[in-house]
Input
Amino acid sequence: MVLDSLGKSLSSIMKRLVGRGVVDANLIKELKNEIFRALLDADVDFDIAYAVAERVEQRALNEPLPKGITRRQQIINIVYEELTKVMGEKAYPLNLQKGRTNIILMVGIQGSGKTTTTAKLANYLSKQGWKVGLVAADNWRPGAYEQLKQLGEKINVEVWGDPKEKNAIKLAKKGRDYFVKNKKNVIIIDTAGRHKEESSLIKEMKKLSKELKPHEVILVIDGTLGQAAYNQAQAFAKATPVGSIIVTKLDGTAKGGGAISASVATGAPIKFIGTGEKIEDIEKYDPKRLVSRILGLGDLETLLEEVKRAKIDTSEDQAKAFLKGKYTLRDMMSMMEQMNKLGGLKKILSMIPGMGMNVDDEMLKVSKENLEKFKIIMNSMTDEELDGEVKINRSRQERIARGSGTSLEDVKMLLQQFEQSKKMMKTFMKQAKRRGGGGLPGMPGLPPGAIPPGTFP
Ligand SMILES: Nc1nc2c(ncn2[C@@H]2O[C@H](COP(=O)(O)OP(=O)(O)O)[C@@H](O)[C@H]2O)c(=O)[nH]1
Ligand SMILES: [Mg+2]
Output
C-alpha cells in the first residue's frame, strides 16, 4: 500500500484512541506527540509536522463538541481534517476537454519516471475512451524512443518519434502536428531526461511550453526524494500556471508523506500517483480517500454524513431511562430500526474505526433475517408488552406467535435475546457511567445494545 509505514503508525494511534476509556488532556498530548513522530518518520517537513500536531491538540482541547457526536469521534475527525489539509484537501481532474486536441507536456528530472508515467497515463486515458497519441521527444537519451515505443505497443497506443531529429523543439512540434492530423484528442509529449537539477529543467520547460502551448504541463517527481521534492515542485509551480504534479515510486519508499506534503505546500495540485513499475500502477490522487485509508478509518466521512442524515437521536429521556436500567422491547425495536436507517450492518461496521471489515456475509444474512422476524413478532405485541409492563407468559407467547404467523419457538427466541440484550445493556451502562459518556466508540447516539445479541454469533 502507498504510505504503508505512515499508515501503520497512524492507524495504530487511532485504534488506541478508540480503545481508551477517558479522553483527557493527557491522551490528547500523547496523540499530538505520536502524530508528530509519525509524520517525521514519513519525512514530512519538521515545521509542517509540528504545525499539524499542534493544530490537532489545540482543536481537540478547545473546540466545542457538536451535538450528536462523541468526543472520540470529534478528535478522529480533527486528525482526519488536519491531515487532509496537508495532503492536498481535494482531488483535481486533468484539464481535458472534449472537442479539442488536448496537449499534455511531461517534464521532470532524469530518472523520475517520466517515460513510465507517460505510458501509464496513456493507458489510463485510452481506457476511458480518449484517443491518445504519444510523442517521444527525448532526443538525448539513447534508446528513449525505443523505450516508449515498446510501452506503446503493449498498451495499443501509437507512439511517434524520430531518432534522427536532434532539435528537441522541432521534434516535439513534428510529433504534435502528426497526431493533430491523425485526429487524436489527447497528445502526451514525453520530454528529455537529461536534467539533473531544477534550473535547467525549468528553462527547457519554458522553451517547450512557449512553442507547444500545452493545456497542461505535468511535473513528474520521484517520491523517494521525500521532502526534498519541495525545491523542484516550488520552482515548477512558480514557472507555470498550467502545472500539475505526479509523484512516482510511492510503492517503494517510506518518505512518500514527505514528497506529497512538500508538493502540496507549493500549491501545485497532485493529480496522480505512481505506485509501481507496471503499466496499471497509477492512481488518481484523492487526498481524502488516501487519508482515511492511512488512518485505517474506513470511510469516516460517509459515516459522519449518514449519521447526520439518519438524525439518530437517542432522546434524553431514553438515555436517562437506560441509566436507571429500564430497557424495553420497544427500545430494542427502535434501535433495530435506526440500524436499518443507517443502511446495513456491514456498512456500519466497516465505518467504525477499529472495527475493521471482517464480518462475513453468511453471518450477516442470518442476523438480518432474525431482525426482520423480530420486527414482525413485535408488531403483534400490545403496548404494555412492548413497554415491559406485563410479563409475557406462555399464553401471551402463544397469542403473539399466532398473530404474527411465526412459531412459539421464534417468540421464545426473541424474548431470550431480549433478556441477553438487557444484561449486556446493564454492563455497558455501568462502564459508560464510569468513563463519563455513553455510546459505542465512534458511534454517536447509538447506545450499546443497539446491536442486539445474536447478531454476532
Ligand atoms: N517502483 C516504481 N518504479 C517506478 C515508478 N515509476 C517509474 N519507475 C521506475 O523508475 C525508473 C526510471 O523511469 P523512467 O520512466 O525511465 O524515468 P525518466 O528518465 O524520467 O523517463 C524505471 O526503472 C521505472 O521502472 C513507480 O511508480 N514505482
Ligand atoms: Mg524517459
In short: The domain at 4-89 is CATH 1.20.120.140 (Four Helix Bundle (Hemerythrin (Met), subunit A)). The two ends are 32 Å apart (CA to CA).
